[in-house]
Amino acid sequence: MKILVTGGAGFIGSAVIRHIIQHTQDSVINLDKLTYAGNLESLVSVLGSDRYAFEQVDICDRADLKCVFFTHQPDVVMHLAAESHVDRSITGPAEFIQTNIVGTYTLLEAAREYWNTLEGSAKQMFRFHHISTDEVYGDLPHPDEQQESDLAKELPLFTEQTAYAPSSPYSASKASSDHLVRAWLRTYDLPIIVTNCSNNYGPYHFPEKLIPLVILNALEGKDLPIYGKGDQIRDWLYVEDHARALYKVVTEGKVGETYNIGGHNEKTNLEVVETICEILDELAPRPQIGSSLKTKYSTLIIHVKDRPGHDRRYAIDATKMSEELNWKPEETFETGLRKTIQWYLDNLTWCNNVQDGSYQRERLGVLKEKEA
Ligand code: NAD
Q1: Ligand 1 atom nearest to 197, measured from its CA
Q2: Is the dihedral of CA 227, 233, 235, 238 positive or negative?
Q3: 198-215 per-position pLDDT tens digit
């Protein structure tokens, strides 16, 4: 197969491309605009493969997209290109509307124009796989809100039937793109599949997101900021488990279906940061200056003002993925986090190179007094 991956220079897209080149015989065309979040250095292990090609293209540019489709003639599309950071969407939503909504629309139209020229099995086998987030569902009840009489009951999870209720400009723009993708099946018969996944973590994650930010700040002895009380719950999935899941979906999933992907790893943000500190204490102990207590990484934790509209809990029910596609995550949170931390310790040059000077791990997504 020839797989057109959009956003292949990003965190998850690059994991998908490394997976395809290293574990299958398929070819990849990586279509990426190379925004601040796109880094070809994340693909050094596959750049030399004759099954890998790169096109620097904006998904909002219809003419360039047409050229890529008709030049490379892909069998399937895996669409990951997006603006992906909630805090940035609060500070500047315009890019999110443009790339996530207008860009997805433009890509759908370019894909449809190309698909209409296909015949026979090529037309039948074509897939447009849209990669989305569990954040489109809004948030779930939090254990703190449970009545005493309900404590024995299990808290609900997001299923493929959960109604959309996005909270941030990011999640609203992703929800809009999901709706567009499903409408292109219903209206034009374009063979689409949608996946909604929980929070990913792992190697090559841009240092603005919680886990890499905490690892790098800790190593530099900087504050480890926790939004509010840090009791927000996320369901963490190791990025390579997500990449395997996405490949299964695009090759074995059914047209028109939605698949929820998650790791069954519900953790509060505070637990995540404390666990990172404990693993770092072991793998990269801080220098013994003064009291040994002060040398624990956890002493760097500070609480800062919460994110506006912050969702309290996400958790995925991934039963459909396991029952219909026989997929299960291979990493537990503990094994995946340890691998991730070791990767950052071994790849500090990558971290320096991807931070181009315009972003210095400062706080984003805070509203001015007048806006709040
Ligand atoms: P990322 O921000 O790391 O990468 C996004 C990539 O898209 C970058 O390489 C960037 O250059 C590219 N891009 C941005 N705008 C573009 C445009 N207009 N044209 C072409 N390329 C463009 O994002 P990620 O974390 O890898 O997420 C990938 C996808 O997975 C996104 O659609 C995101 O919504 C979804 N997702 C992410 C998570 C997560 O935890 N990171 C979880 C579930 C779903």
Answers
A1: 43
A2: positive
A3: 999 999 999 989 999 999
**Candidate list 52, 170, 201, 238, residue with the active-site label:** 170
Q: Is the entire prediction scored with pTM above 0.70? A: yes
- State mean pLDDT over 312-336: 97
Q: Does 134 qualify as catalytic in the annotation?
A: yes
- d(CA 128, ligand 1 centre) in Å: 16
- Distance from residue 34's CA to the centre of ligand 1 (Å): 11
Q: What's the CATH code, domain 2-202+239-264+311-332?
A: 3.40.50.720
What proportion of the chain, given as a percentage, has pLDDT over 70?
A: 95
Q: Is the pLDDT of residue 324 over 90?
A: yes
- Contacts for 95 with CB less than 8 Å, ≥ 6 apart: 83, 88
Burial class (CB in 10 A: 0-12, 13-18, 19+), 330: exposed
User: What does the pLDDT look like over 353-362, one tens digit per residue?
Assistant: 888 666 666 7
Output the ligand 1 site: residues, CB below 6 A.
6-7, 9-13, 32-35, 37-38, 58-60, 80-84, 99, 103, 131-133, 174, 197, 199-200, 206
Q: Is 26 a catalytic residue?
A: no
The length of the chain, given as a count of residues: 372
Say how many Å lie between the CA of residue 166 and the centre of ligand 1.
18
